[in-house]
Amino acid sequence: MRVLVTGGGGFIGSNLVETCLKRGDDVRVIDNFATGRRENLVDVESWRKAGGGVFELVEGDIRDAETVRRAVTGMDVVLHQAAIPSVARSVADPLTSHQVNQDGTLNLLIAARDLGVKRFVAASSSSLYGESPTLPKVETMPSAPLSPYGVDKLAGETYCKVFTQLYGLQTVALRYFNVFGPRQDPNSEYSAVIPLFASLMARGEKPTLNGEGTQTRDFTYIDNVVQMNLLGAEAPEAACGEAYNVACGERISLLELVEKLNGILGTQIAAQHGPPRAGDIQHSLADIAKAEEKLGYKVTVAMDEGLQRTVAWLAQ
Ligand code: UD1
């Protein structure tokens, strides 16, 4: 398979690049390394050798339609991960978030349609469910995003569905629930909570809970997300034009997360509290039955095992 991974220098993207190269796919990456990191791809040559395929890098921005066409040319499958992936950052800068997450996605869909791509798998997000009190979140529930990021992801996956209906482009949208694991950046101002807390606590520092810390999340280890992308790429056509939750179907609070990290690290660090974060959702939990039934998804690495692997990676 010839696979384009957009955002292949990012956390999720680079994990997809690794898996696809190792199984022998030809992989092209488009990344402008704005949020992606070159160090995520340092081992790319050994992954390529293991599978015997070809690796190419297109360094460029998905907001540029010409660059996008160049990247999409000759590809069978697009695994679209490129984004500005942060709720908080979208609150601070909604326009850039819109331009990358919405316009960039539309550029890719148009190129995929025009250049004969067979399957377009797009990263969507649990953030589009917003704050409705009903748990778990089922794909049929109305969306009600609380942040520009949620709006962007809703628009992106709606474009996917419409491109399937209008033009017959085979799209699959994956609603990721708080993904974590190796290669997720612990050092950005907008780092996700697990790499942030794990790296702070490993240095003996206190993490800061935004509000009470009673927020809950369905934290999802990266291997499950890689699996869903591959299932999305290979699922029968009947599965297309649809969105699927990608999660574990279990949730923990941030206070419980701190406790688990203390257990793994052998520390006894108490978190401190800061003000609640604007645009933050209180509770998040996925129903994963649709992914299980229609795509054959199975959680392969659960929360505790994933957390141990992540802490081990951060320690390296
Ligand atoms: C959201 C989306 C997720 C998306 C991600 C992209 C939801 C439910 N999830 O994650 O699908 O992939 O954005 O960024 O909308 N926190 C602290 N202290 C900190 C940092 C974070 O308490 O120092 C809290 C946050 O306020 C939040 C939780 O930890 O309640 C998780 O935050 P984060 O990791 O940023 O992800 P979400 O915003 O939940």
Q: What integer is the average pLDDT?
A: 97
CATH superfamily: NAD(P)-binding Rossmann-like Domain
- The number of strands is 13
Estimated share of beta-strand residues: 15-25%
Number of helices: 11
The percent of residues in helical segments reads 40-55%
Low-confidence stretches: none
CATH topology, which one?
Answer: Rossmann fold
Largest sheet at a glance?
Answer: 7 strands, parallel
CATH architecture: 3-Layer(aba) Sandwich
- Give the domain tally: 1
**Distance from first to last alpha carbon:** 33 Å
Put the structure in a nutshell:
By secondary structure, the chain is of the alpha/beta class. It has helices spanning 11-22, 44-51, 65-72, 87-92, 94-114, 148-167, 193-202, 222-234, 254-265, 289-295, 303-315, and strands at residues 2-6, 26-31, 55-59, 77-80, 119-125, 171-176, 179-180, 208-210, 216-217, 220-221, 242-246, 252-253, 272-274.
